[in-house]
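seq as requested:
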Amino acid sequence: MLRPIVVGLDGSRESLTAADWAAREALLRGRPLRLVHAWEGLPSDAADLPELEVPRHWAWRILRTAMDRLHEKYPQVPLSGDQIARPAADALVTATAESELLVLGSRAFSGIGGFMAGSVASATVAHAERPVVLVRADRTAEDEHLPDAAGLPSTVTPYRAVVVGLDPAHSCEELLAFAFESAALHTAPLRVLHTWQLPYIPVSAEAKARRALRGTAVRRLDRVLGPWREKYPSVELHAMTEEGRPAQRLLEVTKDAGLLVVGRRIRPAVLGTRTGPVTHAVVHHARCPVAVVPHE
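struct tokens:
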């Protein structure tokens, strides 16, 4: 049975945009689409209280309206919806265990609500066992493609590039698998970015150290990418080794990208969960969708 693409739905503009993005992705990947709306409500022994009728009605309406709209726009995509009586983060994390990927709506870091300004998405991204894709409210199907010859938005031009941030010093198989597969599915170029920084050394030694570090970075990246070049020969690959802070360089490289892929190391429970500073920064500031891929 095919794993579905799951969307966390809360009725916001962000989550509806995420549902559209997920439907297009489901179409490309040949996957079913599952909408999940989490609403705690009250215990079952209070289920007949009249004051629950209105919130229950609106909770169901959020799900039903979204399903009707998506079925009309993407009739080829197998679609299902579930209302789960659990806290949102718990429901979404549980849903990812049986999903291909989870898609959430997000806002830029502003502190005014929405998934990414609160604890729901942060907890979901930090605990999810499968990739989580975060999509901004202003994202359209045209934004996934390059402009046409006249510079106008289009849905029939080639897809924009997929970008993945990589540290070859750590395990990155899951990260590269997701990035290469996404690029192949969209027939999009793949930019693999590895950044390095010059340590504090005397000025007189900087030029020599810079050449050495750049050469080491290039060799490391080429060694990691070698098997993937052979596995995905049709993917147009751009290996990039650049000096600078990882988050800053990733944000610069993704200004015209269609998808940014970053990793989250899976940590033992005793150490807690965190997304890491680079992932945290790009999740809040990148304009394109961001895929956070858990890895060892």
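Confidence is low (pLDDT under 50) at residues 108-118.
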